[in-house]
From TrEMBL:
<dbReference type="InterPro" id="IPR013783">
    <property type="entry name" value="Ig-like_fold"/>
</dbReference>
<dbReference type="InterPro" id="IPR000801">
    <property type="entry name" value="Esterase-like"/>
</dbReference>
<protein>
    <submittedName>
        <fullName>Enterochelin esterase</fullName>
    </submittedName>
</protein>
<dbReference type="Pfam" id="PF00756">
    <property type="entry name" value="Esterase"/>
</dbReference>
<dbReference type="InterPro" id="IPR050583">
    <property type="entry name" value="Mycobacterial_A85_antigen"/>
</dbReference>
<keyword id="KW-0732">Signal</keyword>
<dbReference type="InterPro" id="IPR029058">
    <property type="entry name" value="AB_hydrolase_fold"/>
</dbReference>
<feature type="signal peptide">
    <location>
        <begin position="1"/>
        <end position="22"/>
    </location>
</feature>
<dbReference type="InterPro" id="IPR014756">
    <property type="entry name" value="Ig_E-set"/>
</dbReference>
<dbReference type="GO" id="GO:0016747">
    <property type="term" value="F:acyltransferase activity, transferring groups other than amino-acyl groups"/>
</dbReference>
Length: 372
């Protein structure tokens, strides 16, 4: 089991940008700002430039102060300056990491979302989202290729006395013949839900593009809510895996196998998760190794040979993180697994932290390895 200290550091879904003030030297910032692709239709702000700076403009003529808080927990942020026309404007004090980030506004002490940006479920609430253009964004772009389908399903759960929701990605061509597909059960991070991997992670576009390029064997992805007992930030010790393990392994997996064209063996199943979802993956695959043939932890801890001993041997163990996290831990863990005879692969995302660009890249690297 991963150390609790690491679990607390790893939980969540975004890079904290830090405390900063909008006191930039204009000569150092390129004035090629464009609306973020995650803006509400027709909204000009927030904007991002080619260097990774973000600029905000909020109309609030009766407000006294506005601060933009970026990252998990909204620590620090960018203070906006009020102008005579009632608008608050400001630019981040430094460039942000490439990819997706959550943020919100603190207006005179109250927390609000930016009316110019679309909202995404993160930090246990709907947060504003901003996308910083990435040099490698082509792999998750919405291209003119054959697209799979993302559908919502409701499955019965006796253990929770409720109808539970999951999202299922089926690849292009699914259902046209009697072909059966392997399945990846893919979990979100703390404070997120089953919409995260497609809305924030672009998982369906990543899959579509890899399939179109002939780089992977098509497979189904199932994403469901990973919390069966609600846990507040800072109290992860109170989270119990038993309820979610029952829901996933005894209710969701059978439902998917009965309602989709799946390969109903461990070789046809894999489990992966980011951050808290990695913790869930780690525990469930150790408890139920007969169900899954491949395991992947994305910024979600590591495996070691001792805990895998005397259990069915997985075909693949994939462990990843960002270069700003703890890459040496990932590399050392994979080296130990290889030494013990496991097919283990490590991946470190360059110049990213605990954020979706790390996990998008991780899925891109993982997908071709899963079901060869």
């Amino acid at each position: 089991m991963m150390k609790f200290k690491f679990m607390i550091i790893a939980l969540g879904a975004s890079l904290s940008f830090g405390i900063c003030q909008a006191q930039n030297n204009p000569e150092t910032i390129k004035e090629d700002f464009k609306p973020s692709v995650t803006n509400q239709p027709g909204q000009e702000f927030p904007q991002v430039n080619s260097q990774g700076y973000a600029r905000f403009r909020i109309k609030a003529p009766k407000a006294d102060s506005i601060r933009v808080s970026l990252g998990l927990g909204g620590q620090g942020g960018t203070r906006l300056n009020k102008t005579a026309d009632g608008f608050f404007t400001g630019t981040t004090a430094g460039a942000m990491d490439e990819g997706f980030h959550y943020y919100h506004l603190t207006i005179d002490g109250g927390v609000f979302n930016d009316p110019g940006a679309m909202n995404y479920f993160g930090s246990s609430r709907w947060e504003s989202g901003i996308e910083i253009p990435a040099k490698d964004e082509d792999f998750y772009a919405n291209k003119n290729v054959a697209h799979g389908n993302v559908q919502q399903i409701l499955f019965p759960s006796k253990s929770t006395s409720s109808s539970r929701r999951a999202y299922v990605y089926t690849p292009p061509g699914y259902g046209k013949d009697k072909q059966r597909f392997p399945v990846l059960y893919l979990q979100h991070g703390w404070g997120e839900d089953e919409t995260a991997w497609t809305n924030q992670g672009r998982a369906n576009h990543i899959m579509d593009n890899l399939i179109a390029e002939g780089k992977i064997k098509p497979f189904i992805i199932v994403m469901t809510y990973g919390m069966t007992n609600e846990t507040k930030w800072g109290h992860m010790k109170d989270f119990k895996i038993d309820g979610f393990q029952t829901l996933l392994t005894e209710e969701l997996v059978p439902y998917v196998d009965n309602n989709f064209s799946t390969i109903k063996t461990s070789n046809g199943r894999a489990m992966a998760g980011l951050s808290m979802g990695g913790m869930e993956t780690h525990t469930i695959t150790l408890n139920k190794p007969e169900l899954f043939g491949a395991y992947a932890l994305l910024s979600g801890g590591t495996f070691n040979p001792a805990e895998l001993k005397d259990k069915p041997k997985p075909r693949l163990i994939f462990i990843s993180c960002g270069s700003k996290e703890r890459p040496e831990g990932v590399k050392n863990a994979v080296a130990a697994l290889k030494e013990a005879g496991y097919n283990a692969v490590s991946y470190v995302s360059d110049n990213t932290g605990h954020e979706f660009q790390t996990w998008r890249r991780s899925l891109r690297e993982l997908a071709p390895l899963l079901f060869k």
